[in-house]
Design brief:
GO terms for molecular function: calcium ion binding; mannosyl-oligosaccharide 1,2-alpha-mannosidase activity. Its cofactor is Ca(2+). The protein is mainly alpha-helical and about 675 residues long. The chain has 19 helices and 20 strands.
Length: about 675
């Protein structure tokens, strides 16, 4: 209530408070609450203010409006990110027996993996690394490392090796965190290639420490893998640095393309194993010495899966744009391979001259090679915004989809680059020259968000063809195996390469395909393990033949002299990884441990490196071949490390898909 003095004199005018006189409030009819009265009253009071007062009030309103816009801009994206994250947290993941549920994916940065030098001579205590430099990279995949406490658990004792890796807390989230989650199967719709307009690279989203899960300790078996990798890397560094492959016995090297294949193949393995110093040293070589402008012929398939795939994977894991720039360079240099009458690519490309050609002895390419480069080229298009890469490889798949000459989804091994037709009809295998065609049907479907139904249809039809024409059981243990079909005649021959199939079947079942695929996967992985267990060295030969009829004194597996070599191949370990990740059955880890021990016993070279061997049936003299394939570091040891891990977020299979050289690439999500 106003005082008498106040009512007797005009109200005080100032720009902080404006009052209404009682006369204006109380009238004959009491308080008038009409809109017209309110407008006239406010207008009279506004006119009573001086020009200076009105100017100050207007300035304050304008200033508050500007502040509001700035606040909305700065707070909108983080709020949206938190909202999206809250929705994601509400979703539940399917339970995996004996494995904990997946948390939001946090890919660890390289962590020191120190062990007691008495247990592993090559491992020496190392200083904690400096916080890594955060470079531009793709959203969500380049993750700032948290402080890590790595514990090595041994029987009766617990040794702790701490590696503090502090996250850069000053960097703000600029993009909302994307959950790389595979979409459900949807009605037929094609995955559109990226816009031809080059997209600006996004800065990596930071992950706050409180959002990261507690790191899973590295266990003793993983430490053994790290020790094996370091031993192999020592040989490569000492005797073959910057060259394609190590020859550990002669302490020299061999060249295939002259592009440092082993080093590039091993980059993402070092990142996953936490070998920071080795990774940084290899990165310097890539930055300073990896040059693609040279007059050399490379195989399109091998250079795509090893070099392009390795560079793309390392870019995603590290966020370092150096690797993407190198990937774009090699990707562009491989494109002349697609300049053929049929658009089926040539097998060989000269990356310096920009020319391509088929092998000297034929105009054919192998079916596996032309249909197992799609994951890499599609991802390169997605990252660069240049759709030429994806268009080229998608055209190959669409063409193969329409071809005649298949047998219930099974494809021949060769295709002509001039006519675009299958050749050497009537021979069907899941081994060399055809294997990864089937693998990439499923993985492209997963990579693209489960939308490209032609790929899924071809995959499902092919698996039915395998069951109808290629599956048999051996004697005496009744092992289920995949043979070959040649002009209607079945052969009980099975390549070690075929052991990719159990893992692929399990991956399909995990992504919602029919449950009998997992049952077949369980039967086949038992067979692949027996290809090791029934051999004198405990190592599988390159090719086996199965006995279809019981014979006294004979095992299921027979080995011919020309087939008894072992190249340190990864396929069985790869499938063991998938089987353990999806079932939690510890026997798969135990089988992998046996294989690693036998690699150490029969293929390890004391001065550094591992070697392929010629005779898996002779433990006293396995006849070393003096060659360490790049895939031993790129695939075999990587899958070993992942197999022995109980952390299902270490390369989460709902967010990544591995190419056929074990390089993880992200699963796409709708934009």
């Amino acid at each position: 209530m106003y005082s008498a003095a106040a009512s007797a004199s005009p109200p005080r005018r100032d720009f902080i408070s404006v009052t209404l006189s009682p006369e204006e409030v109380v009238g004959a009819g009491g308080y008038n609450n009409s809109k017209a009265w309110r407008r006239r009253s406010c207008w009279r009071k506004w006119k009573q203010l001086s020009r200076l007062q009105r100017s100050v009030i207007l300035f304050l309103f304008a200033f508050l409006a500007v502040c509001g816009v700035i606040s909305y801009t700065s707070m909108g994206e983080p709020w949206k990110s938190l909202t999206n994250k809250s929705l994601d947290d509400q979703r539940t993941e399917p339970e995996i027996p004996r494995l904990k549920l997946a948390n939001p994916a946090v890919l660890p940065a390289p962590q020191k993996a120190d062990a007691n030098p008495g247990d592993y001579p090559e491992l020496s205590p190392q200083k904690p690394p400096k916080p890594p430099h955060i470079r531009r990279g793709p959203s969500n995949f380049q993750i700032k490392p948290p402080w890590r406490d790595v514990r090595l658990k041994t029987k009766g004792t617990s040794r702790v090796a701490e590696e503090p890796v502090q996250a850069d807390k000053e960097e703000k989230t600029e993009k909302s965190v994307i959950s790389w989650r595979g979409a459900v199967i949807e009605p037929d719709q094609s995955t559109e290639p990226p816009s031809s307009k080059v997209k600006e690279l996004e800065k990596p989203s930071s992950v706050e420490a409180e959002d990261q899960k507690e790191p899973v300790p590295i266990n003793e078996r993983q430490m053994a893998v790290i020790e094996a990798f370091r031993h192999a890397w020592k040989g490569y560094k000492d005797f073959a640095w910057g060259h394609d492959e190590l020859k550990p016995l002669s302490k020299s090297y061999s060249e295939w393309f002259g592009l440092g294949l082993t080093l590039i193949d091993a980059l993402d393995t070092m990142w996953i194993l936490g070998l920071k110093e080795e990774f940084e040293e290899a990165r310097k070589w890539v930055a300073n010495d990896l040059v693609f402008d040279k007059n050399v012929d490379v195989n399109l398939f091998e250079s795509t899966i090893r070099i392009l795939g390795g560079l793309l994977s390392t870019y995603h894991l590290s966020g370092d744009s150096l690797f993407l720039e190198k990937a774009k360079d090699i990707g562009n240099r491989l494109m002349p391979a697609f300049k053929t009458p049929s658009k089926i690519p040539y097998s060989d490309v000269n990356i310096g001259r920009g020319t391509a050609h088929p092998p000297r002895w034929t105009s054919d390419s192998t079916v596996a090679e032309v249909t197992s480069i799609q994951l890499e080229f599609r991802e390169l298009s997605r990252l660069t915004g240049d759709d030429k890469f994806q268009k080229a490889v998608d055209e190959v798949m669409k063409h193969v989809h329409t071809l005649s000459g298949k047998n219930d989804g099974l494809v021949p091994m060769f295709i002509n680059t001039n006519s675009g037709q299958f050749t050497h009809l009537g021979v069907y295998t899941l081994g060399a020259r055809a294997d990864s065609y089937y693998e990439y049907l499923l993985k492209q479907w997963i990579q693209g968000g489960k939308k490209e139904n032609e790929l899924l249809e071809d995959y499902m039809r092919a698996i039915e063809g395998v069951k109808k024409h290629l599956l048999q059981r051996s004697q005496p243990k009744k092992l289920t195996f995949v043979g070959e079909l040649a002009h209607g005649h079945f052969s009980a021959k099975m390549d070690h390469l075929v052991c990719f199939l159990p893992g692929t079947l399990a991956l399909g079942a995990h992504n919602g395909l029919t449950a009998d695929h997992m049952q077949l996967a369980e039967a086949l992985i038992e067979t692949c393990y027996q290809m090791y267990a029934q051999v004198e060295t405990g190592l599988s030969p390159e090719i086996v033949h199965f006995n279809l009829h019981a014979q006294k004194g004979h095992k299921d597996v027979e080995i011919k002299p020309a087939d008894r070599h072992n190249l340190l191949r990864p396929e069985t370990v790869e499938s063991l990884f998938y089987m353990y990740r999806f079932t939690g059955d510890k026997k798969y880890q135990d089988w992998g441990w046996e294989i690693l021990q036998n690699f150490n016993k029969y293929t390890r070279v004391p001065t550094g490196g591992y070697t392929s061997i010629n005779n898996v049936q002779n433990p006293s003299n396995p006849e070393p071949r003096d060659k360490m394939e790049s895939f031993f570091l790129g695939e075999t040891l990587k899958y070993m490390f992942l197999l022995f891990s109980d952390d299902i977020d270490l390369i989460n299979l709902d967010k990544y898909v591995f190419n056929t050289e074990a390089h993880p690439l992200p699963i796409w999500v709708p934009e």
